[in-house]
From TrEMBL:
Keyword Transferase attributed: yes
Superkingdom classification of source: Bacteria
Domain called N-acetyltransferase: residue spans: 2-147
Membrane-crossing residue ranges in chain numbering: none
PANTHER family (UniProt xref): AMINOALKYLPHOSPHONATE N-ACETYLTRANSFERASE-RELATED, AMINOALKYLPHOSPHONATE N-ACETYLTRANSFERASE-RELATED-RELATED
Name of the protein this chain belongs to: Acetyltransferase (GNAT) family protein
Annotated GO MF terms: acyltransferase activity, transferring groups other than amino-acyl groups
Lineage of source species: Bacteria, Bacillati, Actinomycetota, Actinomycetes, Pseudonocardiales
UniProt keywords, alphabetically: Acyltransferase, Transferase
């Protein structure tokens, strides 16, 4: 049975393992010092960024990170930034349930839209995304900024 809930302090080791897997998937193998501590603190405060975990038979097997931001053309929108499931849990509905939980949360916050990005060649994830969301055909451009 899959359960979705906010991440508790005891979930930290499993969350970090999953988030490291997510970052490795996107080619970010080495993160700066304090990266995971800072992210965890943000999620635990729940003020700016939010996180949920999926447990399958009590084991943390999936995570999702998201936040709300204003929109010039609608009510505030919810951006699903990170979604990752452990390889052994894939195909069991974990990602679908995490997306549904964020959708429910965003609806409860009065958001006008939930959206996310993925790489064009992320074919496995896109099989699910094409079933639960609309691809509006936007292309993302990015300029990295140095702090």
């Amino acid at each position: 049975m899959i359960t979705i809930d906010a991440l508790a302090p005891a979930d930290r080791p499993g969350w970090e393992r999953l988030f490291a897997g997510y970052n490795a998937f996107y080619g970010r193998e080495t993160m700066p010092p304090g990266f995971y501590d800072n992210a965890w603190a943000e999620f635990q405060s729940g003020e700016r960024m939010h996180a949920l975990g999926a447990k399958l038979d009590g084991d943390l097997v999936g995570i999702v990170h998201f936040f709300v931001h204003p929109s010039t053309t609608s009510a505030d929108v919810c951006y699903l930034q990170d979604l990752f499931t452990s390889p052994e849990a894939r195909g069991k509905g974990v990602a679908r349930q995490l997306i549904a939980a964020v959708k429910d949360w965003a609806t409860g916050q009065g958001c006008g839209q939930l959206y996310w990005h993925t790489k064009q060649d992320n074919h496995t994830a896109r099989l699910l995304y094409d079933k639960v969301a609309e691809n509006r055909g936007f292309i993302q451009y990015s300029i990295p900024l140095e702090p």
